[in-house]
Amino acid sequence: MAVAAVHQACETLAQLTQTEWEQINAAAQVGRILVPTSALSGDYDVARPFARAPRDRVEQLLAAKLTGHALEADTAGWIADLEPLMADKLARVGLIPSREPQAAATLGPF
């Protein structure tokens, strides 16, 4: 009985993860992921404070997350230069790691 419950929970989490990735990918395809224009390279001349995220960046983030491969150097640099608000949004959907410091693990008493 317990094995069946664990199996069901794992299957549900896998389906939720797949659905979330499909939603992120769909939003990226139609340009609904926005970034501050200050985070874009000089190639972009946008007069508004926010613009559509470059599709290639979002696709690279998705591919790296799904395959476990490292990001390209230019994409990693782009992430490093993101403003905290945008970085937090990307971290919340799992595209980049959180910038918030993690609590250090401590050993318990012996």
3D structure, described in words:
With 110 residues, the protein is mostly helical. The protein has one domain (2-92). The chain contains 4 helices and 2 strands. The protein has helices spanning 2-29, 55-67, 73-80, 84-92, and strands at 34-36, 50-52. A two-stranded antiparallel ribbon has the order 1-2. Helix 1 packs antiparallel against helix 2 (55-67). The longest helix has 28 residues, at 2-29. The chain is extended. It starts with a helix and ends in an 18-residue tail after the last helix. The mean pLDDT is 77.
Estimated radius of gyration:
18 Å
N-to-C span: 35 Å
Silhouette: extended
Tally of individual helices: 4
Helix/strand-derived class?
Answer: mainly alpha
Bin the helical content. Answer: 40-55%
- What's the overall average pLDDT, rounded? 77
Strand runs, count: 2
Domain count: the total is 1
Provide the low-confidence segments as ranges: none
Features:
mainly alpha, extended, two-stranded antiparallel sheet, 4 helices, 53% helix, 110 residues
Summarize the structure.
The protein is mainly α. The chain is built from 4 helices and 2 strands, in the order H-E-E-H-H-H.
